[in-house]
Amino acid sequence: MAVPVQYYLVLSAAVFCIGLFGILTRRNALFFLMSVELMLNAANVNLVAFSYQFGNLTGQVFTLFTMALAAAEVAVGIGIILVLYRNFSDVDVTKATTMRW
């Protein structure tokens, strides 16, 4: 007996809400990065669940593209975090307002 698709959707909604909560409440750039990754993974779970339900591979292909996008996003995000740490000796994003022109 297979697991119903609704369980995957509930799991995905919970993970997405945890990621959204992390973005809205934290000031640390590393937590921002991890929260965005949680939200992307929640979208991936949705894509794979619907791909399984409808019996085609389109959702799984989109998931692979999303994973590649997430890897690029992490590379850019780590670069930004390193610049924040080098300039401010902290990864608090509220201190970055002094970097304006």
TrEMBL record:
Supply the InterPro entries for this chain: NADH_UbQ_OxRdtase_chain4L/K (IPR001133), NUOK/Mnh_C1-like (IPR039428)
One Gene Ontology cellular component annotation held by this UniProt entry: membrane
Q: Which UniProt keywords apply?
A: Membrane, Oxidoreductase, Transmembrane, Transmembrane helix, Transport
> What Enzyme Commission number does this protein have?
1.6.5.9
- Which sequence ranges are marked TM in the entry? 6-24, 31-55, 61-85
Question: Is GTP-binding among the key words of this record?
Answer: no
Question: Under what name is this protein listed?
Answer: NADH-quinone oxidoreductase subunit NuoK
The record lists the organism as: Halomarina halobia
